[in-house]
Amino acid sequence: MFQVIPSIDLRGGKVVRLQQGDYARQLDYDLDPVDTARSFAATGAQWMHIVDLDGAKEERVAQIDLIKRMIDGCGMRVQVGGGVRSTDDIQRLLAAGADRVVIGTHALENWSWFEKLAAEKAMQGKLVLAVDAKDGHIATRAWTQTTERLAVDVAKQVSGWGLAALLYTDVAKDGMLQGPNFTQTRLLAEAGDTPIIASGGVGSLDHIRQLLALSIWGVIIGRSLHDGRIALADAIKLANS
């Protein structure tokens, strides 16, 4: 079943959003993170996505106590990312109640470590590889560095690894509400057997409707929810129709 996954980005213990990953272009929301998570569950969401923006910037898991309170308080299945730089970070987040841990920069810059980790039986279905890209090219370091590596090649490489999902975000689209990169999302879905989660730029129910036509596992929505452009209940209803 296609999953609509509401997202909460945390910075300084508050709910925020960044436009195109730029910390200088931060949108602040007068929302309590724990109450917001509970509201997602009450609306019928089965999964939630949490990003530790402090962790992403400081290269460490920075808000684990708050993340644990959010997980404990909502009753949903949760995937968490931001600042994951070691196996210990992963274990700490799993111990805090996360069902999945999202790894981006550290996995892509330390590929042999990630490949070995993904092969461990205990990690099957626990790891989400974040593939952030600009014009199809992988972007790392909180999107500050673009590489020559193609996102679609990474999707081909991890096929058969037993990853929980591949989370694809087009950096140019993120936080802009103009729609995700449908073409690249489709190419990644066709590249292997890893479930694909689309992220970045979803600003309307029509965007979700277009993603439903692709062979992907789900979509993450953040700013459009907090801005009131999409009602979570309507998005879930559409996904289940």
* H/E topology pattern: EEEHEHHEHEHHEEEHEHEHEHH
Percent helix: 25-40%
Q: Roughly how many Å is the radius of gyration?
A: 16 Å
Shape: globular
| Count of DSSP H/I helices | 11
Briefly note the structural class of the backbone.
Answer: alpha/beta
Distance between the amino and carboxyl termini: 10 Å
Number of strands: 12
Largest sheet: 8 strands, parallel, barrel
Q: Which stretches are poorly predicted, pLDDT < 50 over at least 5 residues?
A: none
Strands ordered across the widest β-sheet: 1-4-5-6-7-10-11-12
Oligomer: single chain
Q: Name the beta content range.
A: 25-35%
Mean of pLDDT: 90
Could you describe the 3D structure shown?
Helix content is 37%, strand content 29%. The protein starts with a strand and ends with a helix. It is globular and about 40 Å long. The protein is an alpha/beta fold and 241 residues long. Helix 1 runs parallel beside helix 3, helix 7 packs parallel to helix 8 and helix 9 runs parallel beside helix 11. 46% of the residues are buried. The longest helix is centred in the N-terminal third of the chain and has 11 residues. It has an 8-stranded parallel beta barrel, surrounded by 7 helices. The protein has 11 helices and 12 strands.
